[in-house]
């Protein structure tokens, strides 16, 4: 029995069959899991980094927020460059540059003497690298998986979740023992293996095609197979593109503000540093549950993915609005709920982009969505600084974030109704 299981595992892991949902895709998913685990050292630690930057440089919340917010902006803005570049050349060289920038962002930040330099090193360089990795991992999962695409997104994205257990507490220890600059240097060195991993990843052969096949194709086929300009830009005529854009932009903006301020929010209530940082561990555990277990609701056919995305957005909006009013124990419980639905909506959003907008446009789709979402992050430092330094309370910040998520999630009701109408008409015809 044991030998049989080992042989099945070996065949599954070493198989050379090409096509979606094959062993080569499983190997790609494992590599992408590690990439997301390491690159998430950045944004999964934003809550602690915000406090650490403010304390190390002795600056206001507004100034301390700029490096982190710039990192978020560049993570999304990079999509407008990364998507077309990976379409024009190939995925591997762009991913190599992204992994190198992600690690250099931390390493160079160890030499930053003020928040302006830190904004350039950690924000611009590191943020661009993070964005390239996240976008191209999404592309790889869309290319290498079809039937198990939702599961693949969940498993690889779990790398980001696991990072929440490791890096916030690791940074807390490193900063306490060696100080902020040395901590950034150590973390940057830990991320360097990403460059080696990226060297083994590239576009799926059955998606990109070889040069010989491309030479025999007609001009029309070339336009579609190579992702011609007209095909790519037709995405702007898709109403669903704007549903994805505004609903997820408000959701990401609200959650980025949450991840950046929740540690400081807990500290302002008199919570100890360790307990405040551990909120991210609670969030991570629930996030992992949401990514790997809750999708079974969809797999069983009980609810559609679009329905679950809408429900996740609405429940998250409610909890964000009430979060700053709660005690630490209730905050921890609310954080678990938020984490569950954040993980669920994250993987379904990514898989729905490929399903609704098409795999032939997925690189540019993810790139444009990330770019436009980045525009929302430009005002975040002033927004957070206003509530932290002037209002002296995060209540208004969380209420605004929750309200924006609720408002921009409403168009998903139209998507759900539109999907269900043909099914009901078909049922009526069959009954007649």
Automatic annotation (TrEMBL):
Question: Is Manganese among this UniProt entry's keywords?
Answer: no
Mainly resides where? Answer: membrane
A single GO cellular-component term on record: membrane
Q: Which residues cross the membrane?
A: 24-44, 64-82, 94-113, 119-139, 151-171, 183-201, 275-294, 306-326, 332-352, 364-383, 395-417
UniProt-annotated location(s): Membrane
Which residues lie in coiled coils?
none
Q: Which UniProt keywords apply?
A: Membrane, Transmembrane, Transmembrane helix
Major facilitator superfamily (MFS) profile domain ranges (all copies): 1-420
Q: Which PROSITE patterns match?
A: MFS
Print the organism lineage.
Answer: Eukaryota, Metazoa, Ecdysozoa, Arthropoda, Chelicerata
The record gives the membrane topology as: Multi-pass membrane protein
The protein depicted here goes by the name Monocarboxylate transporter 9-like
Q: Is Transmembrane among the key words of this record? A: yes
Pfam families to which the protein is assigned, alphabetical? MFS_1 (PF07690)
Q: Which SUPFAM superfamilies match?
A: MFS general substrate transporter
Q: Which GO terms describe its molecular function?
A: monocarboxylic acid transmembrane transporter activity
Checking InterPro entries in the record gives: MFS, MFS_dom, MFS_trans_sf, Proton-linked_MCT
Native organism? Galendromus occidentalis
């Amino acid at each position: 029995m044991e030998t049989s299981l080992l042989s099945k595992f070996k065949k599954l892991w070493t198989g050379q069959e090409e096509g979606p949902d094959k062993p080569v895709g499983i190997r790609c998913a494992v590599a992408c899991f590690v990439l997301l685990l390491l690159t998430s050292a950045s944004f999964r630690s934003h809550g602690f980094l915000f406090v650490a930057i403010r304390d190390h440089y002795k600056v206001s919340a507004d100034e301390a927020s700029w490096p982190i917010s710039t990192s978020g902006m560049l993570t999304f803005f990079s999509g407008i460059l990364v998507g077309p570049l990976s379409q024009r050349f190939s995925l591997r060289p762009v991913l190599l540059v992204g992994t190198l920038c992600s690690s250099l962002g931390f390493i160079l930040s160890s030499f930053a003497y003020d928040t302006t330099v830190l904004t350039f090193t950690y924000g611009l360089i590191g943020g661009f690298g993070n964005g390239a990795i996240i976008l191209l991992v999404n592309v790889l999962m869309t290319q290498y998986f079809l039937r198990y695409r939702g599961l693949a997104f969940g498993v690889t994205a779990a790398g980001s979740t696991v990072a929440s257990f490791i890096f916030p507490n690791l940074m807390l220890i490193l900063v306490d023992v060696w100080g902020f600059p040395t901590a950034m240097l150590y973390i940057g060195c830990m991320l360097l293996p990403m460059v080696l991993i990226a060297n083994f990843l590239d576009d799926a052969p059955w998606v990109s095609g070889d040069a010989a096949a491309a030479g025999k194709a007609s001009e029309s086929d070339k336009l579609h197979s190579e992702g011609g300009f007209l095909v790519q830009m037709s995405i702007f005529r898709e109403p669903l593109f704007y549903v994805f854009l505004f609903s997820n932009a408000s959701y990401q903006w609200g959650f980025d503000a949450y991840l950046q301020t929740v540690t400081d929010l807990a500290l302002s209530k008199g919570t100890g540093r360790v307990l405040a940082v551990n909120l991210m561990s609670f969030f991570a555990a629930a996030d992992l549950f949401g990514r790997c277990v809750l999708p079974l609701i969809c797999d069983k056919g009980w609810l559609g993915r679009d329905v679950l995305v809408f429900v996740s957005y609405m429940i998250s909006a409610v909890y964000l609005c009430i979060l700053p009013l709660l005690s630490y124990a209730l905050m921890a419980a609310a954080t678990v709920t938020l984490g569950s639905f954040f993980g669920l909506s994250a993987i379904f959003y990514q898989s729905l982009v490929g399903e609704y907008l098409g795999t032939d446009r997925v690189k540019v789709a993810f790139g444009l969505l990330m770019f436009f979402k980045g525009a929302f992050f430009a005002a975040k430092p002033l927004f957070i600084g206003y509530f932290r330094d002037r209002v002296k309370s995060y209540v208004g910040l969380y209420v605004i974030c929750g309200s924006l998520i609720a408002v921009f999630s409403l168009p998903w009701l139209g998507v759900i109704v539109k999907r269900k109408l043909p099914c009901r008409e078909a049922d009526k015809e069959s009954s007649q």
